[in-house]
Amino acid sequence: MQRAIYRILDTNLDRAREGLRIIEEWCRLGLNNSQLAEECKNMRQELAEWHTAQLRQARDTPGDVGTELTHPKEENRDDIEHLLRANLCRTQEALRVIEEYSKLYKPQLGIAAKQMRYQIYTLESNLLTNHRLQQLQNASLYLVTSPSEQILAVVDAALQAGLTLVQYREKTADDTLRLTQAQQLCQLCHQYGALFLVNDRVDLALAVDADGVHLGQQDLPIALAREILGPQKIIGRSTTNPEEMAKAIAEGADYLGVGPVYETPTKPNKTAAGFDYLRYAAANSPIPWFAIGGIDLNNLNEVLLNGAQRVAVVRAIMQAEQPGMITRQFLSELGRQQRLLDLGTHLI
């Protein structure tokens, strides 16, 4: 019996350390986050100290009946978030096994494993939040959908062209249709590794496990939306002036909509905020922001010259005959502008 316990501990110490190493590599090389990478490394090293020669000597890989066991879900990972979740769960489960069986070996190891398991829960929250925020930071083009019989085909074409951020906006349909479309769009976006947000409806975002929600000025307070969705989700807020911007930032918004830049039928009762507000946002916003409102390829350069680096569009893609081609043109122009900015910063 003692040898069996040693084998169980040896196997799960290996499993926990391997899972941590996979997570550590993403923190280090995917996120460039030295703090999270160091946290993973420290936990790995602590487990290594408990992984004694006595436990290793009990190993019997040829005689382990579990080496041939597998499951189809282990064969593939849909995206980086799926990969991270799988290895976080793997590590948590291994630590739980260590915690229990150590009570028959060295209770101090069990105590250490329990503390580490709770540390992993916190790491999971921080890691997934960090991953989404990094994706948000990197996104230059934001598609906000409008009602369309071809909504899935349009979004799919845009995603194929390189789009990485989509918001589902539907103001008039019944909830049955909204739920179905949101589920389909969420799945589609995640297949491409893109972020999927829901406009206004926190309950709908929660129901489909969206990456977050976009709130207007008359919607729920940001704090309440975050309490409902959890700390890992993205929350954006529409703003039309510096006062609304300051309030949204103080309340903890992850990003801002800034506009409408031009008058648009999407916001029929909103006066255009114009370029002054864009320039103000460029000089004062510490968080990502997207210029929005009547932006298309004909006026994009004017918007960029007034300080925007990210734009959100509706009709320019949703009503395009070739949404994929239009998306590529947007991304190409936004990428060119970013390269010019990077060059200017380097020269300075």
TrEMBL record:
* InterPro entries recorded: Aldolase_TIM, ThiamineP_synth_sf, ThiamineP_synth_TenI, ThiD2, TMP_synthase, TMP_synthase_cyanobac_bac
Transmembrane segment boundaries? none
How cofactor binds (record note)? Binds 1 Mg(2+) ion per subunit.
Residues given in the record as 4-amino-2-methyl-5-(diphosphooxymethyl)pyrimidine binding sites: 167-171, 199, 238, 267
Binding-site residues for 2-[(2R,5Z)-2-carboxy-4-methylthiazol-5(2H)-ylidene]ethyl phosphate, renumbered to this chain: 264-266, 294
Task: Give the region (Thiamine-phosphate synthase) as residue ranges.
Answer: 120-348
Q: Quote the EC number.
A: 2.5.1.3
Which keywords annotate this record? Answer: Magnesium, Metal-binding, Thiamine biosynthesis, Transferase
Q: Where is the Thiamine phosphate synthase/TenI domain?
A: 141-317
Q: What top-tier enzyme class does this entry carry?
A: transferase
Which GO MF terms are attached to this record? magnesium ion binding; thiamine-phosphate diphosphorylase activity
- Residue ranges for the region (Unknown) are 1-119
Catalytic activity reads: 4-methyl-5-(2-phosphooxyethyl)-thiazole + 4-amino-2-methyl-5-(diphosphooxymethyl)pyrimidine + H(+) = thiamine phosphate + diphosphate; 2-[(2R,5Z)-2-carboxy-4-methylthiazol-5(2H)-ylidene]ethyl phosphate + 4-amino-2-methyl-5-(diphosphooxymethyl)pyrimidine + 2 H(+) = thiamine phosphate + CO2 + diphosphate; 2-(2-carboxy-4-methylthiazol-5-yl)ethyl phosphate + 4-amino-2-methyl-5-(diphosphooxymethyl)pyrimidine + 2 H(+) = thiamine phosphate + CO2 + diphosphate
Q: Does the keyword Disulfide bond apply?
A: no
Q: Name one GO biological process term.
A: thiamine diphosphate biosynthetic process
Give the residues the record marks as binding Mg(2+). 200, 219
Any one GO CC term of this protein is: cytoplasm
NCBIfam families according to UniProt? PRK02615.1, thiE
Q: Which family does it belong to?
A: Belongs to the thiamine-phosphate synthase family.
The record's PANTHER family line, in alphabetical order, gives: THIAMINE-PHOSPHATE PYROPHOSPHORYLASE, THIAMINE-PHOSPHATE SYNTHASE
The function of this protein is:
Condenses 4-methyl-5-(beta-hydroxyethyl)thiazole monophosphate (THZ-P) and 2-methyl-4-amino-5-hydroxymethyl pyrimidine pyrophosphate (HMP-PP) to form thiamine monophosphate (TMP).
- Entry protein name: Thiamine-phosphate synthase
Give the organism, scientific name. Stanieria cyanosphaera (strain ATCC 29371 / PCC 7437)
